[in-house]
Write a structure and sequence with these properties.
Layout (H helix, E strand, L loop, with lengths): L2 H4 L1 H18 L4 H8 L3 H14 L2 E3 L6 E3 L2 H11 L3 H16 L2 E8 L2 E8 L17 E3 L4 H7 L4 H10 L13 H14 L2 E4 L6 E8 L8 E8 L8 H18 L7
Antiparallel strand pairs: 1-2, 3-4, 3-8, 4-5, 6-7, 7-8
Length: 261
Amino acid sequence: MDTEKNNPVQSAGKIFQIMEMLAEEGPCGLLEISHQLNLNKSTVHRLLNSLIYMGYVRQDEVSLKYHMTLKIVNVSGKVLKQIDILSLSQPYLKYLMEQTYETVHLVKRVDNNICYIQKLEPANTGRSIQMASFVGMISPLYCTGVGKAIMSRLPESEIRDILAKCQVSPKTEHTILDAEQLIRELTQVRICGYSLDNEENEMGVRCIATAINDYTGSAEYAISISAPIFRMPDERIPELSSLLLEVAGKLSGELGYHPDL
């Protein structure tokens, strides 16, 4: 009995194995695919013909090797257009707020700035603080925790270019204005995975932030936890950073980021 014909899931798995191999290895011959995937040659041939019929694979007339077409890119583009970062992030931000009972933000990079696109505050107004941030607010990258988290993912040349184009000015007495000092700090952010805003953007407010990876591995978004400085002492940073990185990893996965692939 041909179990493959009776088990469509098994066939689907083999089809995706072939597609992933062609995407990673480039053009491959029938025997090469069969040997590497440990699949029967006739099975591979039949599945390849199916992929050719659907437009995902082509066979070179001279080398007879098989390769992926751009149809998969077209399909991926349609999926990406449907990704709604606000809807995807909502449960994660809510969880973060409920676990910390502090204000959380989601921002998006816009040129040399960040734009606040989501803000959740604890229901107990007696505990929450009146911060200047609001949805739609634009702030510089260089003086915010979320901005520094995003900048830490950039090459040094781009960081210097951003600082050269920005009118770097003190938002508070704690704002880092020296490019070399900021670059050294961003190096540490890259190592530990999170950044701190120590009253650099708003007096009395401390913020811990980390970048969100999309499916390409780039970071256009970041999330943060903000609190009065007396509620975010150094002793609380390990607990908050661990939770923040855990949530960021899950949200990045929702956006298609898989570091092991």
